[in-house]
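lol forgot to send this yesterday, sorry. struct tokens for the thing we talked abt
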């Protein structure tokens, strides 16, 4: 006979993998915060978004450490994302540490971002694509991400 505890194990992975969300402020902040909240609702309390940097802290070292401890690096991709030196460094740290990188393409800023616009470091990676900057599209992307990571999606 299955107990409630056994059913609870089906709801999320046995341990929450460290997850780092990399994004360009001003273009992807709403999506970053939405994904953070959905991951936390699914039971992953090991989500890192740079809003948690402490004043006076060594933020460069903290970002590198958090990425190297992570299983997943979620990169929110717009045309402007890869103009950020720090997003590129975060991708580099993730690749060095063997972190699984999950690109999420979404519309923001100047133009629509397409797979062919990916930098060489992300070329060939399977992506999640957000068609429009709407709550419905954010939810579709969040469900794809959660499903890939082993979480239940309603």
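and heres what i got for the seq, position by position
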């Amino acid at each position: 006979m299955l107990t409630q505890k056994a059913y609870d194990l089906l709801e999320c992975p046995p341990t929450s993998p460290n997850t780092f969300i990399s994004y360009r402020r001003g273009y992807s902040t709403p999506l970053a915060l939405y994904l953070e909240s959905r991951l936390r609702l699914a039971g992953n309390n090991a989500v890192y978004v740079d809003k948690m940097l402490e004043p006076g802290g060594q933020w460069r070292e903290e970002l590198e450490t958090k990425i190297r401890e992570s299983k997943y690096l979620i990169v929110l991709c717009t045309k402007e994302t890869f103009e950020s030196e720090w997003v590129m460094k975060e991708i580099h740290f993730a690749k060095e540490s063997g972190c699984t990188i999950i690109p999420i393409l979404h519309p923001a800023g100047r133009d629509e971002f397409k797979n062919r616009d990916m930098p060489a470091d992300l070329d060939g990676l399977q992506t999640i694509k957000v068609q429009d900057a709407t709550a419905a599209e954010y939810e579709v992307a969040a469900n794809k991400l959660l499903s890939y990571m082993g979480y239940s999606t309603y």
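The helical segments are 4-9, 29-41, 59-68, 85-97, 135-149. anyway ping me if u want another try
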